[in-house]
Design brief:
The chain is an alpha/beta fold and 282 residues long. The protein contains twelve helices and eleven strands. It is 42% helix and 21% strand. It has a seven-stranded mixed sheet with strand order 5-4-3-6-9-11-10, sandwiched between helices.
Amino acid sequence: MKTLLEVLNLSTDFLEQKNIANPKRQAEELLGEALKLGRLGLYLEYDRPLTEPELVRCREWLQRRGMGEPIQYISGEVDFFGCRLKITPDVLIPRQETEILVDKITKILSTAGTEGKTLWDVCCGPGSMGIALKKRFPDLKVCLSDLSPTALAIAKENAEKNDVDVEFFQGDLLAPFGERKSDFIVCNPPYIAENEYAGLDIEVRKYEPKMALVSGDTGLEFYVRLAKDLPKYLNSKGKVWFEIGDGQAQAIEKMFCAACWTSFKHELDWSGRERFFSLEIE
């Protein structure tokens, strides 16, 4: 029987041969998930022989990763800001950049107060932002919406999985909220232009849902609609946070250049790219 360390070394070599970037880190993450040990746990049990069922699972997962399938879809789960989320190819894989945004929002809400307040997670996908914020602020009323019924079904499973009570609305952008208003809105809409899609990593194009990535010819279509519609959905002093594409901040700021907004702010992610945009209404 092969030990865990032997399987890890063989897996690293296999992924390197398949031209998978960062093969050792990828092998560690894959085996850590497959064996439910985590990366650190692999080295704590490095000399343990693997059972035949464990070897079969690791081989199967390794073959799938070698073909380019993301680890998150192989395992079917991902950790996000203190939550464990179900992930399928019907929804985008939550990124670390989005965790940065949630962390920024958490700091602001901690100061602003959440009792009696409402937050909407629009284009929620698997529900990562809304669920994480509800878990952090139990007295905050959270509503999740998405155009995709399948994505919304996964978000419902994730709410149950993380034991949070949120509401769900299915429909196009803000339309399903009708006459309701909110104090806070978070949104990670599609923002890739159609002509940029072919240049995305093959793993993204082959496995992640195009509907959640591409907004249209310019990549700005959803922001155009939000700039027009958001004011009527926000309470006084309402705050909004977006995730945006690199290089879109100036164009988006021009869209929201109206008297009803009291502040605009775009911020960088850890790699120095413009990734977040926030604003506040009068």
